Amino acid sequence: xxxxxxxxxxxxxxxxxxxxxxxxxxxxxxxxxxxxxxxxxxxxxxxxxxxxxxxxxxxxxxxxxxxxxxxxxxxxxxxxxxxxxxxxxxxxxxxxxxxxxxxxx
Length: 105
Known about the structure:
Elements: H1 2-31, H2 37-57, E1 62-63, E2 70-71, H3 74-82, H4 86-93, H5 96-104
Antiparallel strand pairs: 1-2
Helix pairs in contact: 1-2, 2-4
């Protein structure tokens, strides 16, 4: 029960970060000309949390296709994640803003 509580707290934290980023980033892209250091630090810290979430996903059980059994085999979990949302998650944490800023200089 205790680990389930921590997983729920973690998922809520990630949800809050996602909601904040999904509202702030478009606003800042539309209405600001440059990024100050504070926002770059915030984006980096947020990406670190998302990276930790990617790692934790490899250790989170999944259900079978009929949603009857809980699968705890790490190889099956990893294979399922790598053929699913893993690549979307990895692309989403790439620091594209820092890469694009290097090209501008």
